[in-house]
Amino acid sequence: MNNFTTDERIEQFSNLMNPYVSEEFKEWLIESGFFTAPASIHHHGAYSGALFDHSFAVTKALLSFTERLELKW
User: Which 8-state DSSP code applies to residue 67?
Assistant: First the structure.
């Protein structure tokens, strides 16, 4: 569990994803609760914001693999 605020999560998302997603999509994610929802109700990730935290970690790992392995998508 990390202790980021919703605003900090949105800032992290914006810093990483701004070249790839529209402002409208980001607003939709905010309205849909993506930055505040738990990843699970009863298992790991059962805390506010965990859905974003997990998704962000997976995205960063994919970007790291892509760069290190010189992958082309």
Answer: H
Task: Please write the tens of the pLDDT for every residue from 28-70.
Answer: 999 999 999 999 988 889 999 999 999 999 999 999 999 999 9
Is 39:53 a contact under the CB 8 Å cutoff?
A: yes
**Closest alpha carbon to 8 in 56, 60, 41, 43:** 56
Domain coordinates of the chain in residue numbers? Answer: 6-68
pTM of the model: 0.85
> Is residue 34 within 8 Å of 51, Cβ to Cβ?
yes
- Rounded to a whole number of angstroms, the distance between the first and last alpha carbons of the chain is 31
